[in-house]
Amino acid sequence: MAKRRQKQIGNLIQKELGDLLEKKVSDPRLDFVTITTVEVSPNLRQAHIYVSTLGDQQAAMEGFGHAASFLRRELASRVALRHMPELIFHSDISLKHGEHILQLLDEIKVTQEEE
User: Fold this and answer.
1) Which of helix, strand or coil describes residue 101?
2) Is 108 helix (H, G, I), strand (E, B) or coil?
3) Position 71 pLDDT exceeds 90
4) CB atoms near residue 36 (< 10 Å)
5) What is the pLDDT of residue 1?
6) In which element (H, E) is residue 30 found?
7) pLDDT value at position 2?
8) What are phi and psi of 3, to 5 degrees?
9) Is residue 85 a contact partner of residue 13, using CB atoms and an 8 Å limit?
10) Taken in order 87, 76, 11, 67, is the CA torsion positive or negative?
């Protein structure tokens, strides 16, 4: 039962954060940022937000560090929860990892065709 609630809140936070990033955040470090996953802790006090970016990942994480309190405040006004979870941002490297695997597979394919 708790898992379902965590997923619902995570999905809601992901949707609202995406909307906030698109419409209210003007920090250029947070341009071209995608929220890939939101995982909410079982006690609903922390939300681990995984983001991927096309630009500078380090700069984007610094931007999220500066915008975290603003985003939390805005979320609190949009989402009806007793306690708004603390927002903890992480870089999502799964897309880059997937690209690396595809590149390796392409290299294997080319070497097999040459033989």
Assistant:
1) helix
2) helix
3) yes
4) 15
5) 43
6) none
7) 59
8) -60, -40
9) yes
10) negative
Class of 2-114 in CATH: alpha beta
Per domain, the residue ranges of the chain are 2-114
Tokens of 16: 């609202």
Cβ neighbours of residue 38 closer than 8 Å, sequence gap 6 or more: 10, 11, 13, 14, 17, 47, 48, 49, 50
Write the DSSP symbol of residue 115.
-
Q: How far is CA 26 from the centre of its chain?
A: 17
The length of the chain, given as a count of residues: 115
CA 71 to CA 13: how far, in whole Å? 10
State the residue for tokens 């209210």: 24
CA gyration radius for the chain?
18
Please report which residue ranges of 47-93 form alpha helices under DSSP H: 57-78
Tokens 């341009």 map to which residue? 31
**12: phi > 0 → left, psi -120 to 50 → alpha, else beta; which?**
alpha
The pTM assigned to this predicted structure is: 0.78
